[in-house]
Design a protein that fits this description.
The chain is an alpha+beta fold.
Length: 298
């Protein structure tokens, strides 16, 4: 977590689709479906892809045409408000395709009067933080080229440094943010957990992620060499037990496996660890130590 020299702005970006595991869509349980859906549509520019009684599916244009689902909202006014001390979601991180896209979004967010809660240069990325109307954390970020965040030994170097917001805004070229850009994805999901070692045993030892980096009280899990598709911290939730039923917040994180062999290997490790898989939407899911569901898809 020490300051490093400036990193180059050129080079190849990480190919998320080639990683053994990457995040697909996130499902949140919300108390006011209309209000929360409108927030993600207006501020992030997500498109409404589908909807039904009590649920809305949002996404972004996919390269080559069509749309990629990113966020499913399930509404229930009877839910208890989220408790920030419980295990669950720290933030959903939306990865912009380019720094220019992030700069344009920053200008849009400021013009819209969004309450931005933080901004950081993580060496691996530039990131802006905020929350949705029900307190669910959001990160909007753009990666730096992969070569910029590796040491000569291949390790990931991360930090939390001040963000040059003016330079980032200028990278947008003054162009308007015209909705979610083609290629916007959920780059990672950061979780609140009760214990990082227990999180390591599930996300690293069972699901098969690498422990890419560690901060005090946090572990970052990468697949295929990425700095992190998942993370878990105890900054607000140290010692938390299983998440109470009937509470708003994170319901599921979908992980997309590169192929059946990756998925099946994770399920075999889960069986060896005594974890019983569950069926969710016709697919297989595993519960983490706090009751959170991870759906494994291909």
């Amino acid at each position: 977590m020490t300051e490093a020299a400036a990193v180059p702005a050129e080079g190849a970006m990480f190919d998320m689709q080639a990683a053994p595991l990457h995040v697909g869509r996130v499902r949140l349980r919300v108390r006011d479906l209309s209000r929360v859906a409108e927030f993600y549509e207006s501020l992030l520019g997500l498109r409404r892809l589908d909807q039904g009684a009590g649920w809305t599916l949002l996404g972004a244009p996919a390269p080559g045409g069509g749309a990629r689902p990113l966020l499913e909202l399930v509404g229930d006014a009877r839910l208890a408000p989220r408790d920030p001390r419980q295990a669950g979601l720290f933030h959903t991180a939306f990865l912009m395709p380019s720094r220019a896209d992030l700069g344009r979004w920053l200008g849009h967010a400021v013009a819209a009067g969004a309450r931005l809660e933080g901004a950081s240069d993580h060496l691996v990325s530039e990131a802006i933080y905020l929350s949705d109307p029900e307190g669910a954390g959001i990160e909007v970020y753009a990666d730096r080229p992969e070569a910029a965040w590796r040491t000569p030994s291949g390790a990931v170097k991360m930090a939390t440094l001040p963000l040059d917001a003016q330079a980032l805004y200028e990278a947008g070229g003054g162009a308007p943010y015209a909705g979610a850009p083609e290629g916007l994805i959920v780059g990672h999901v950061h979780l609140q957990v009760g214990d990082t070692r227990a999180a390591d045993r599930f996300y690293r030892d069972v699901l098969g992620f690498d422990l890419a980096a560690e901060y005090p009280g946090a572990s970052f899990y990468g697949s295929g060499g990425y700095h992190h598709q998942l993370a878990g911290n105890v900054w607000n939730s140290r010692g938390a037990g299983p998440r109470p039923a009937g509470m708003a917040g994170l319901e599921t994180v979908e992980l997309i496996a590169r192929d059946a062999a990756v998925r099946d290997a994770a399920l075999a490790r889960a069986e060896a660890a005594g974890l019983a898989p569950e069926a969710r939407d016709g697919r297989t899911a595993l519960r983490d130590p706090w009751g959170g569901l991870t759906v494994l898809a291909i």
